[in-house]
Amino acid sequence: MNQIVTNRIGYQYEISPISDHETRISLFDLPHKSITIPYGIDEVMRAWYKWINGHFIQDAFWFLSEDDREFLMSGLSASEFKELYSDDK
């Protein structure tokens, strides 16, 4: 029951159930870039629907860390985001 979804800037993600209580979210074209979260796919899909339809991501995905929400918005991992936006350049 994998789902393909698109975020607000056009990146596609594959949402895959691992178990009833665990879900993997992968960038569609880069399956090695993924996060695994301790919530079932139904909860994740409800949150995705809320986010895409106007809720703030922190409200829709209240159960994700800031880094995981950034991955959904930009496709960047925490380390990639820090490297890109570091003041140490």
Major sheet size, sense and barrel closure: 4 strands, antiparallel
Give the SSE order as H and E letters. EEEEHHHH
Helix content: 25-40%
Based on DSSP secondary structure assignment, what is the total number of beta strands?
4
* Rg (CA only): 13 Å
Structural class: alpha+beta
Q: Estimate the global geometry from the Cα principal axes.
A: globular
Number of helices: 4
Which key phrases capture this entry?
89 residues, four-stranded antiparallel sheet, 4 strands, 36% helix
Summarize the structure in words.
The chain is an alpha+beta fold. The chain has one domain. It contains 4 helices and 4 strands; from the N terminus they run E-E-E-E-H-H-H-H. The protein is globular, with a radius of gyration of 13 Å. The model has no long low-confidence stretch (mean pLDDT 92).
Write a brief caption for the model.
It contains four helices and four strands; from the N terminus they run ββββαααα.
Give the helix/strand layout.
Blueprint: E1 3-6, E2 12-19, E3 22-27, E4 30-37, H1 41-52, H2 57-60, H3 66-74, H4 78-84
Antiparallel strand pairs: 1-2, 2-3, 3-4
